[in-house]
C-alpha cells in the first residue's frame, strides 16, 4: 500500500520546448530552459531502504538553532506559522481559527500512539527525522537556508506530523534503531515515512538504523515508500 497522509504529490511538470531563434535575433542569447519539477518516486520499502546512503553519524557542532523554525509557513498571508498550518492540514475535524491563527476545538489523531486529541496545545509537530539526526546524517554541510527549508518542510506530508507531545518527547532525537512508535499499527507507516524523508533530503543512515529499517520492511510486505527529492 502507498504511504500518504494529506495530499497527493503533484505530477512532474512538462519540460518547456524552446523555439528556434530567427536570424534577426541570432545574436541574442537564448533563454535558459525552465527547470523541470522533481519527479515523485515510489519504491517498495526494502528497495527504498537499500537506496539510502550508508555513513557514520557525526553530531559535532550541532545546535537546534541551526534550523530556523517555525517560519511563516507555505502561505505567509494566512497569518499562520508552519506549526499551525500543519495542524490545520492534519485536523480530522477542523478547528476554529481566531486572531493570530489561534486554534480552538478540532480533532486530531496522533498515529504514533493511536490517540485522539481535541486540544491542539497537547500536540507537537514532530520532524519525522529529528533535527539532530538530520545534522548527523548530512545536514551539517547544508546552508542555513536549506536547513530552514528542511525544518519547515510541508512539500512532503511525511516530513512533519502532528502527534501527542508525550510520544514526540519519548522519541526525542532517536532513530528507528533506538525508538519506534508504541502503536504496533504505526510501524509500517513510520518506517516508510522515515525512509521517505531521508531519501527526499539525501540523508544517510548508519548501520544499526539501516538494519532496523530492513527488519521493518521485511514485516511490511506491500508497503511502498513515496518521496519527491527536495528542491
Describe the structure in your own words:
The chain is of the alpha+beta class. The chain contains 7 helices and 8 strands. It has a two-stranded antiparallel ribbon. A two-stranded antiparallel sheet has the order 2-3. It has a two-stranded antiparallel sheet with strand order 4-5. It is globular and about 45 Å long. The two termini are 26 Å apart.
Strand content: 5-15%
Q: How does the major sheet shape up?
A: 2 strands, antiparallel
What percent of the residues sit in helical stretches (DSSP H or I)? 25-40%
Taken in chain order, the helices and strands follow as EHHEEEEEHHEHHHE
* Overall mean confidence score, pLDDT: 88
Instruction: Give the distance, in angstroms, between the N- and C-terminal Cα atoms.
Output: 26 Å
| Spatial shape | globular
Radius of gyration: 20 Å
Structural class: alpha+beta
Task: Record the strand order, biggest sheet.
Answer: 1-8
Number of helices: 7
Number of strands: 8
Quaternary form: single chain
Uncertain runs are 1-29
Primary descriptors:
single chain; 231 residues; alpha+beta; two-stranded antiparallel ribbon; 8 strands; 13% strand; globular; disordered N terminus
In short:
The chain has 231 residues and is α+β, with helices and mostly antiparallel strands. Helix content is 27%, strand content 13%. A two-stranded antiparallel sheet has the order 1-8.
Amino acid at each position: 500500500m502507498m504511504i500518504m497522509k494529506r495530499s497527493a504529490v503533484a505530477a512532474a511538470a512538462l519540460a518547456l520546448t524552446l523555439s528556434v531563434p530567427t536570424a534577426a535575433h541570432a545574436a541574442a542569447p537564448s533563454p535558459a530552459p525552465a527547470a523541470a519539477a522533481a519527479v515523485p518516486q515510489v519504491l517498495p520499502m526494502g528497495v527504498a531502504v537499500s537506496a539510502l546512503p550508508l555513513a557514520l553519524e557525526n553530531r559535532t557542532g550541532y545546535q537546534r538553532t541551526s534550523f530556523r523554525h517555525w517560519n511563516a509557513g507555505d502561505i505567509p498571508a494566512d497569518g499562520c506559522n508552519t506549526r499551525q498550518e500543519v495542524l490545520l492540514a492534519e485536523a480530522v475535524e477542523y478547528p476554529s481559527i481566531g486572531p493570530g491563527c489561534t486554534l480552538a476545538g478540532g480533532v486530531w489523531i496522533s498515529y504514533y500512539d493511536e490517540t485522539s486529541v481535541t486540544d491542539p496545545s497537547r500536540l507537537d509537530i514532530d520532524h519525522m527525522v529529528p533535527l539532530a539526526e538530520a545534522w548527523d546524517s548530512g545536514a551539517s554541510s547544508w546552508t542555513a537556508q536549506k536547513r530552514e527549508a528542511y525544518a519547515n518542510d510541508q512539500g512532503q506530508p511525511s516530513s512533519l506530523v502532528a502527534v501527542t507531545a508525550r510520544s514526540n518527547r519519548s522519541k526525542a532525537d532517536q532513530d528507528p534503531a533506538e525508538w519506534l512508535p508504541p502503536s504496533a499499527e504505526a510501524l509500517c507507516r513510520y518506517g516508510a515515512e522515515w525512509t521517505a524523508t531521508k531519501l527526499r533530503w539525501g540523508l544517510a543512515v548508519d548501520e544499526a538504523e539501516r538494519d532496523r529499517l530492513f527488519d521493518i520492511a521485511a514485516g511490511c510486505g506491500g508497503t511502498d515508500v513515496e518521496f519527491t527529492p527536495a528542491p
